[in-house]
Every structure is written in structure tokens, then in C-alpha cells.
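Researcher: Final request for today, and then I'll write up notes for the group meeting. The sequence and the SMILES for zinc ion follow.
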Amino acid sequence: MRICNLSSGSDGNLTYLECGKTKVLIDDGLSCKETIKRLCLLGVSPVDIDAVLVTHEHTDHIKGIDNLCFKYNIPVYVHEDGLTSLEKKLTKYIKLIPFKDNGFEVGSIGVQSFAVPHDVKRCTGYSFYENQKKISIVTDLGHTTTEIIKNLAGSTLVYLEANHDVQTLINNPKYPFQLKQRILGENGHLSNKVSAETIYELLKSGTRQVVLSHLSTENNSPTLAYESVKLALEEHGVIEGTHIKIDVATLSPGAIFKL
Ligand SMILES: [Zn+2]
Ligand SMILES: [Zn+2]
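Model: Predicted protein-zinc ion complex:
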């Protein structure tokens, strides 16, 4: 498997995953033009994309889907509970394939989906399988649950949300009180602190590489997220670079991971 974050954060999310001949995108929160440009960096043409898998209908995850999928006839997979909300946001006719959480396949990629707590009817986390390898992506969640940890367990690589630094968010004069409450709430976004606690749990099940994702531009920074998580893990005796490798996904295309 080959995976690459092409954009991550509140301004647009786009992840590329390849397994054998199968090529998929997880979300497409960039414009169609920008998506094509970034795929081109990987030597991938949009005509080669087999499917787009949607996490949820917020604009930062679906902005480019309409145009890209209409133009290149790409099917869009969405959990059945998120189907209506997604349909309402679409302006073009594209092929939607609803699924349940009982596992499915896209070409040679095995997919397992699971629900994550966010302020939409349905937000989906994904695990991808090839032979014994497992990669997971989970962003846009207000908190983690034992069920989510169970779903992520055994992943070699996890893209995990580290949205904000709690103090930076609380002190941000540009953010109204209600927005802060929403982000900090049970169905908001994951803080650096909770992200670190989650990583500590994942380590026990064999995860050795985490990519901190969906960082807030206003209330976090790649350095702050990395340092906070590193420090929190050190308190558990976990050393970044020795026990686990931590990378940070940003709005620019990131590293390609091969498993
Ligand atoms: Zn988002
Ligand atoms: Zn969202």
C-alpha cells in the first residue's frame, strides 16, 4: 500500500491511497483543479482514480467531489447514514454508493468503516487492509471511544486528528464563545492532548507510525502539535523516533508512506 496526504486541515482534506492497481481518494476538500494538480505530483491521473471515500459532508471534505467525480465518472462511497446529508450538498449527478459498517472492498483494497463522534449525522473513520497490513484514518472527532480504539488497533500507520491546542483555542480572541464550545465539545475536534493519549493506546496494539492530521490553522501549528504530543508521550516513557514515529500532515502535500 502507498498512502499520501495531499492536504489536511480545516481548509481542505485530501488523501491518496493506492493498493496494487486500485487507487482511491479519501475525501476531496480541494477544488477539482487543485486536486488534479496534486495528484499529478504523484504521477497519478484523475482518470485512474477508482473511487472517492467520504468521511462526512463538511465542505473541507467534499468541496471538489462534485466536479471531479462528475468529470471523470468516479463513484463516491458514503455511509448510508450520511447519504442524504451528502446528497443535499451536491449540485451535479454523481454515482453514490452507500455502505454499512460491515466491511467492503474497492478493487484490491479491503475497507472497514466505523462511526466517529462529530457534529453531523454520520462521520466515518476508515481502516484499509492489504494482506496483513492495515492503515487507518480518523479525523473530525470530538473524543475517542473504546470502540474507535478497537477499530484502530493493529494499524501499522494511523492518520489521527490533532486539531488544536486547548489553551490556544480558549485564548483565541477571534473565536466566538459558541465556536470554541463546538470545537471543544464531545462532537467537535480532537485536541493535541487527547490525540497523544490515543496514540499511547495505539502503541500497545503495535502502531509505530502516526501522522497528526486536520490541524487548525488558528489554534495549532505543526511544531506545537508535534511537540505537545512528543512531550505527552515522554511522560509515559515513550520516545518519539525510538518507540514511535510522529509526522504532521499539513495543507501542503506530505510524505508518501509505503507499507
Ligand atoms: Zn474537517
Ligand atoms: Zn467536520
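Model: The longest strand covers residues 109-116. The pocket of zinc ion (ligand 2) is lined by residues 56, 58, 118, 140 (CB under 6 Å).
Researcher: Thanks, that's everything.
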